[in-house]
Design goal:
By secondary structure, this protein is mostly beta strands. It has no helices and eleven strands.
Amino acid sequence: VQLQASGGGLVQAGGSLRLSCAASGRTFGSNVMGWFRQAPGQEREFVAAISWSGGTTYYADSVKGRFTISRDSAKNTVYLQMNSLKPEDTAVYYCAADKNPRRTYVAGQYYSRGLYDYWGKGTLVTVSS
């Protein structure tokens, strides 16, 4: 099983990037998917998650209104559209997947790294001021 994140790069503050996370080895079309990020010297933190059906999304307060998570189950891919980027968004972004299909959780669980069983290698996003 592999999760491959892509789409990172260098962008000026106020700009946009779209990250993609393509899964291979098994289908995650009906699994909770999430994005986390880790800045240098800091712990990995939650960014966004999407329910197995795609009907509910969750965001960290720091990105709410600027980032959008979505999924294309047919392509086994999840996306993170990032707008109005700020220098503090600079980090390595990781996608993650829950191994259990069609599972619904208490809202707070979606924010926890412990929910996710599979992790990608990450893609670097650098936002310059």
